[in-house]
Amino acid sequence: MPSPTRSGLAVSSSLTIPRAELTERFSRSSGPGGQGVNTTDSRVELSWDVGRSAVLSDVQRERILARTGHRLVDGVLTVTASEHREQRRNREAAAHRLAALVADAVAPPGPRRRATRRTRGSQERRLTAKKQRSTTKRLRSSRPPRDD
């Protein structure tokens, strides 16, 4: 499981994002918190500049850019966490979320699907169902049935 460490954010056994490359911003959360909700900056935004990261290989960078392109703003990947009352727990949640997102993006693609033929039984069931549906619709029609 991805986890934050002192030196950085461990994404996998071979990839750790250094703390120096991560940027944290804090703001007021809209979630639970009682009277402290309006005074405590418990919401966390964790950002990482994928384009300028020194720890990524070219292949890893291409995979991340391709798979998370819709989430990137100027090459920066940002995740937020505001589900907890405590800033510390939101920081941990954001770190886990970012690590999981990067781990999924860096993972190699799965095996390609092997094309297979439809079975004779499945083809026959499909044609039988089509004939039954056709008969039902023909019987509902106000026109007299045609003899084929």
TrEMBL record:
Q: Which Pfam families match?
A: RF-1
Fetch the InterPro entries from UniProt.
Pep_chain_release_fac_I, Pep_chain_release_fac_I_sf
Q: Which NCBIfam families match?
A: PRK09256.1
What Gene3D superfamilies does its record include?
3.30.160.20
Compositional bias per record (Basic residues), positions renumbered to this chain: 111-120, 128-148
Q: Which SUPFAM superfamilies match?
A: Release factor (SSF75620)
Q: What is this protein called?
A: Ribosome-associated protein
Q: Output the superkingdom of the source species.
A: Bacteria
Q: Which family does it belong to?
A: Belongs to the prokaryotic/mitochondrial release factor family.
- Which portions of the sequence form the region Disordered? 22-43, 101-148
**Locate the Prokaryotic-type class I peptide chain release factors domain: which residues?**
14-140
- This protein's species is Isoptericola halotolerans
